[in-house]
Amino acid sequence: MPAETPSPRQGAGRFAPSPSGELHIGNLRTAILAWLFARSSGRSFLVRVEDLDRARAGAEEAQLRDLAAVGLTWDAQAVRQSERGDVYRDAVHRLQDAGLVYECFCTRREIAEAPRAPHAPEGAYPGTCRNLTEEQRARRRRERPAALRLRAGVDSRTVRDALHGGYTGVVDDLVLLRNDGVPAYNLAVVVDDALQGVDQVVRGEDLLPSTPRQAYLAELLGYPPVEYAHVPLVLNREGRRLAKRDGAVTLAALADAGWAVPEVVGRILGSLGLPADGLPQALAAFDPARLPREAWIFEPPAAGRR
Ligand code: GLU
């Protein structure tokens, strides 16, 4: 199915990993949740490879293989963001035509050191390049390439989330196109979800703070609103986000340590309060209102050969 064709009317959910390495059990748990949310609400389910930034050779294949191995099914060939430059540029052009884009020449350091209004929210772009004169822009263009930023008309937005209720967060003049020409994550995700007919976004809780920006951008682009569910993360014993160095956390390493795929899936489902005997049984019992709201502290088995 061509990516630009919106899905049929029933809507779609999705899982959108960045192919920066193998998925760990936390990523797999989020993927299973996204699948359960989509399938239990009669939606189709899509996988999108978010490879604009952190792609590592072989990671995409390994991730898709592991998603299939745990029993997930998706309804169209996985879409790769790196092949969709045109759709992101079209969206930027539409915003430009509406006068909602400006060039930004700031370095990270300049942004960190810029003076801010006393009430300016943490992490918000201070607006340094918002009102440069044409002459100032011409001079700065000779020094470094510009990123393109959205001229936001609001400074916060409230979104509704199935697990968090109303969530209010910062909307600032977010980057649309980085100064190396790569579309920014917030733009790509919003454009792709809309063009792929995604109307349900299930992902890790760490992305909740980006959501007000994305909802606002979607609105400016005339896209329909989507439902959100930001699900709890998986943490290590120290209470930090799970990472490869935490031992056997990928499907391959877990298999080596003695946990075959059904055991891993069973433990993930058990951690969600669902029947641990398989995805079909978990799907039959799935009720978003009864999901745990706290992180899952994962104890890996003693590592095997890897
Ligand atoms: N690609 C992002 C990640 O792996 C997820 C984006 C999303 O689900 O919106 O963190």
UniProtKB/TrEMBL annotation:
Q: Where does L-glutamate bind?
A: 14-18, 50, 185, 203
The protein's GO terms of the molecular function aspect are: ATP binding; glutamate-tRNA ligase activity; zinc ion binding
Binding-site list for Zn(2+): 104, 106, 125, 129
Tell me which domain of life the UniProt entry assigns to the organism this sequence originates from. Bacteria
**Residue ranges of region Disordered?**
1-20
Q: What is its EC number?
A: 6.1.1.-
* Chain positions of motif 'HIGH' region: 17-27
User: What is its biological role?
Assistant: Catalyzes the tRNA-independent activation of glutamate in presence of ATP and the subsequent transfer of glutamate onto a tRNA(Asp). Glutamate is transferred on the 2-amino-5-(4,5-dihydroxy-2-cyclopenten-1-yl) moiety of the queuosine in the wobble position of the QUC anticodon.
Q: What protein am I looking at?
A: Glutamyl-Q tRNA(Asp) synthetase
Q: Which organism is it from?
A: Arthrobacter saudimassiliensis
Gene transcribed to yield this protein: gltX_2
